[in-house]
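The freezer alarm interrupted the setup, so I double-checked each line after restarting. Inputs confirmed:
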Amino acid sequence: MSISRLTSHASRLTSHASRLTSLAAAALLATACARPEAGGGGPTGGTLVIVTAGDADVLFPPSGASTVCADISGLVFSRLAELTLELNTVDDSGFRPALARSWEHADSLTLVFHLDPRARWHDGTPVRAEDVAFTYDVYLDTLVGSRFRPNLAAIDSVTARDSLTAVFHFARWYPEQLYDATYHTRILPRHLLDSIPRGRLASSAFARAPVGSGPFRFVRWEAGTIIAVAADTGHFLGRPRLDRVVWRVVPDLGAGVSALLAGEGDAIAVLPPRELRERVRADSSFRMVPYAPNALAFISFNLRDRDRRGPHPVFGDRAVRRAIAMAVDRATIVRSLFGAEGEVPVGPTARAQWIWSDSIRQLPFDSAAAGRLLDEAGWRDGDGDGVREKGGRPLRFVLLLPTTSRTRQDAAVLIQEQLRRVGVHMLLLPLEFNLFEQRGLRRDFDAIFQSRNLDASPAGILQLFAGEGVRHGNYGRYESPVFDSLVHRAIATPTRAAARPLWREALETLNDDAAALFVFSPPFAAAVHRRFETVTIRPDEWLATVTEWSVPPRSRLSRDR
Amino acid sequence: MPTYLVRRFALALVTTAAAVALTFALVHLAPGEPFLAGAEERFVPPETIARLRRDFGLDRPLAAQFARYVANVARGDLGESFTRRRPVAAVIGETLPATLLLGGVALALSFALGLGLGVVQARRAGGLADAALSTVALALASVPAFWLGLMLLLVFGEWLHWLPVAGMTDAVAGPSRGWLALSLDVARHLVLPALTLALVNAATVARFHRAAMLEALGADFVRAARARGLAEARILAAHAFRAALAPAIALAGLSVPALLTGSVLVESVFGWPGMGRVAYEAIFARDYNVVTGVTVVAAVLVAVGSLLADIGVAAADPRVRRA
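Predicted 3D structure, all chains:
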């Protein structure tokens, strides 16, 4: 132990010394080489190497399912308008111009975008309203099979009034029209894609080497190892401060952290395992940049029996669900998993969403009250074996969890022990991810430990817990007309201030019904090399503001030049 | 010899076909849905899954799918990857060279190390050096390759900063450098993954070769050579080593599948863009076409490796040819 520590200290000292030398040399060189930014906002230059666990599947925004595809799409392609850091999805003040330099609501069903005439595709062709109409046609085409299609259900059509005016026609009025019109889609170049059959777009050459209109242009993709983009120095909104962003694929997360600490990378988006965060924190070259999480881990109870003929023998009873929820000390579990950094969710939301409020009513942890509730519901331990029974059936159920999530496995073990204390026998069944999700889709479970990355808009809650989601993302088949009505009213309320009480009531209804057990929201923090300055992170897309990140000339490494 | 070769070749063909048929059946019958990647980020509507299944012909009976697959393979078409939306042949073509480079270098290194160690151990059989080397070989043969890889990565990459730990080339420099610079870069990135695979395999080779050398050193022809007064070094190199080579050649053939399977995890640890990693990811993503395609290629590689080893052994030992 002590030898390894000595070795570690020695290597750190050596590395600090060599870094100081190289920094001094770099500062001298960089001062001479720094280039002024076109917009006069300070020097430009620098390379950001992001270590990522997975390669991209495709680089075609409508079809990509990988995180890297989403990251790269955000830099290479543009939206019509961008959310600001506040993630206010309700009114138009939460957006800033991007491809569209302005927009107006012509009437309650028509949203008109005026494109910036300076916008160009990376091949030099101007971005036109026809591209916008084409994009929506592609996203809605069943042959393309985009996962974003359900998010665009309220958009009837998109037309080009003239070359710089795109008009969105909605089926109904609602406050998040601008959000739905801009957030889910990246505008695509019609002139490069129109001739490709829709069903072949994802497998086309374009999907391997995309041409966009974003602040960075695609450079190269070495399958399984490197993807690189470079600053579009003539971008109409001003060039990004960095010259390059490179993704280095290292499938093993621990090895990825080693690559980072070995100086081969500059940033990792998120590091859930505590020990990996500690390893990065121990290296003074890096800092952790926390941001509001948009992920939520929760246990869905299956309210219907597996044969779908009646209520589930355990979870069909609201009192039993409430008792189980009250028997779990989530605060202790979160502390155990994440230290002081994790968060107990207040309901089916995460801190990144504007509806989050610390004062939302939840069922308290009270194992004595949980025991009483179970007694009243007729579940008693008659035979003294530690497990309650009712009508000869033991209070036992199986929790499915994915083998890919160590955190959920650890949490499940703690929950299992806490439930044992009130006479509930929870069996754990870890399944390989694919099989786990398949069992969820088929509703073939008693309880399932899910994790979801939530959209910036809270409207996604409909998919997870409303009646209309029962055939989709509502795995537990929770149905409550009261909850549905509250959410629909909240979504239709034009201001956040007026919508907040409705959202609160909806979440509290769900909590009271114990439709699910909201276990944890993992801490989100990106590890970023200290030479990067002006680092801000938008919680829903961690690279949304990377155009503002910069490396001062004095801090540059050889790869920054 | 020609009859022997034809027989071995026919056996290799049958083995490959059986491996492909078995893999096809297993991956298709295994539970799990191929189109659920990224489901935790964004829900995949069942209708989208149904349409994709139709597009890829997964809604047909398994026998019909297999018949179509065989017909396509006969035309050189290994199908399209579900996740990468590219021809499987292109995915494999892109990654196979990296795996061959890693496996080839690891094989050469492991035999250089293993044969050398085997000779040293046999020469000093029963001594302290033999016992120490046997212990080291046993330890190396026992550790999982990915764990050894992580240790090497930690020591030589993260702590000492001597060698790169991830990928096959520098992330920023790009391919536009000169041939020599690129080769040196690849060589530097190759050291740790190749060493990981080689050390594990070398331990096995050393143990085999030690035994073979001891047997050879006790043989009559070695005693005769000693009686003729030949130098011990010459006896070792020209007589015993050569006689002990046949089992080592056979072991080289057997090492090909071991290196291929070992490379699956080692490629993941070091971010080496090889076929093993593609297979690993494809298995979890239920990318049937990629899994089966990789199996076709791996089975061919193993068959070729075994065939070459058989030919080598036959060339080295006339008794095998006559058998």
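Quick read of the result. The two ends of chain A are 40 Å apart (CA to CA).
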